[in-house]
Amino acid sequence: MRRKRVLPLAALVLCAPALAGTAPATASPQGPPTGPLRILLTNDDGYNAPGIRKAYERLTAAGHDVTIVAPLTNQSGTGTKMMNAPSVTVRHPEPKVWAVDGTPGDSVAFGLAEVFAGRAPDLVVSGTNFGPNVAGLATHSGTVGGAVTALESGVPAIALSTGGLTAPDPVTTVNAMVPTMDFAVKLIDRLRARARSGPLLPKGVGLNVNHPVIGADGKGTAAGVAATFQDPQTVLEPDFTDAGDGTWKVTVKVSLRPAAKGGDLEAVAAGRIAVSPMNADWNTGTADRAVTSVLLAGLRP
To answer: pLDDT tens-digit profile of 151-173?
Structure first.
C-alpha cells in the first residue's frame, strides 16, 4: 500500500533564514556502514517521551552512536507536515539531544541539515511511538512522517510503534516498549548483516514496524513477525455535532472492518509484529498506472 501524505512543498526551505546557507543531506552514505551505526532518532511524542528514551537507551546499549533530534512538544497526528516557517526554535538540553519546536518532519530536516551536516546518518529511527500506526493511522502518523522525511533525502528509515487495537494503558504500553526495542535491535542487526555490499535498505524504501502489546503487563513475547502491507481502511471515524453557536463538537471512534489478509491490522490483531515497507512518494504500482492509461486513452484537452 503506497503512503498517502501531505506533500511538503519547499520542504527543505523551512527555517530560513535560520538555516540559510546550509544544505540538507540528500543521499545515504556510500557503501555499507562500518563501525557503530550513526543513528538519528526522532519521534512524534516529544524528545523526552518514554518511547524515544527507551529507544535511545536500547540502541546505545547495542553499540550504536545515537543522536536524538525530535520535537520539543507532542506532535502526534501531524503526518508529514512541515511548517515552512521563517524561523524555528531549537534547544540543545543535553549532549546528543536536540529538541526542535516543530513537527517530526521539521526535526529530521534540521537534523540532516545541521546536526549531521556533511555526512548523513546511516539510519533514521522514528519512535517508538505510543500506540499503533497501522492502516489509516499510518497515513496521518507523525512517527511515520518523520521516517518519510528521511526517505525523501535518501536516508534509510524505520518507523517504530508500540500498541494494540484497544485504548492503550500507559503503564502497559511503556512496558511493551522494551520488547519493541529488543526486536528493533534484532531487525537493525539483520539489515546490517545483509548490507555487506550495499545500503541498509533499498533506496527510497523504509519500514513501518508495529509491535503489539502482549500480556496483561505488556511484557509478553509477540506471536511472530509478519511481512505486511498497510491495510487500506481508515480505522478512526469522526462524528460532528452542531452546538448551534458556530462550533461543532467532535468525537472520534474506532470503526474496524474485517482486516485485509496479509495486512498490518491483521498481524497486530493476532499478536504478531507487523513490518510493512513504505516509500516517500505518491507513486502507485504498475497495475494502477495501467488503469490510468486505459482511463485516459483518447482523451484530449
So the answer is: 999 999 999 999 988 877 889 99
Q: Which pTM was predicted?
A: 0.85
131-157: pLDDT as tens digits = 999 999 999 999 999 999 999 999 999
Taking Cα atoms as reference points, which of 235, 45, 212, 224 lies closest to residue 128?
45
Q: Extract the residue ranges of the chain whose pLDDT is less than 70.
A: 1-34, 197
Grid cell listed for 261? 489478509
